[in-house]
């Protein structure tokens, strides 16, 4: 039983590592020939700031929306979050 669990855990780690490596390779080819932060590998997401209020609600500031650079990949790379994650978090809470 221990042997089966060990092999399953090893296979899961190997699959995760292969997925991350494949994602990094695809991103590398998308970035080829483009300056950092531009090109087909990067996107921008507009987001707003909000603040928590005492009555468990929040207030969205009506100032200028902020821009965030993100990578078009499954995992975060080069210090940028993936675009699919940033598009779902368009309101950021200020503490």
Describe the structure in your own words.
There is one protein chain. The protein has 95 residues and is an alpha+beta fold. It has helices spanning 2-31, 83-88; strands spanning 42-52, 58-60, 66-71, 91-94. It has one domain (2-94). Strands 1, 2, 3 and 4 form a four-stranded mixed beta sheet that branches. Strand 1 and strand 2 (58-60) form a beta hairpin. The longest helix has 30 residues, at 2-31. The mean pLDDT is 86.
Tally of DSSP helical segments = 2
Strand content: 25-35%
* Class by alpha and beta content: alpha+beta
Backbone shape: flat
Indicate how many domains the architecture comprises.
1
Overall mean pLDDT = 86
List low-pLDDT spans: none
Rounded to the nearest angstrom, the distance between the terminal CA atoms is 48 Å
Helix content: 25-40%
Largest sheet: 4 strands, mixed
Question: Which value, in Å, is the CA radius of gyration?
Answer: 19 Å
């Amino acid at each position: 039983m221990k042997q089966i669990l060990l092999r399953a855990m090893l296979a899961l780690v190997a699959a995760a590592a292969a997925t991350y490596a494949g994602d990094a390779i695809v991103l590398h080819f998308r970035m080829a020939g483009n300056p950092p932060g531009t090109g087909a590998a990067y996107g921008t997401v507009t987001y707003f700031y909000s603040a928590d209020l005492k009555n468990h609600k929040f207030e969205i500031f009506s100032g200028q929306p902020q821009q965030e650079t993100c990578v078009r990949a499954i995992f975060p790379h080069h210090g940028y979050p993936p675009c699919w994650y940033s598009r779902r978090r368009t309101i950021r809470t200020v503490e």
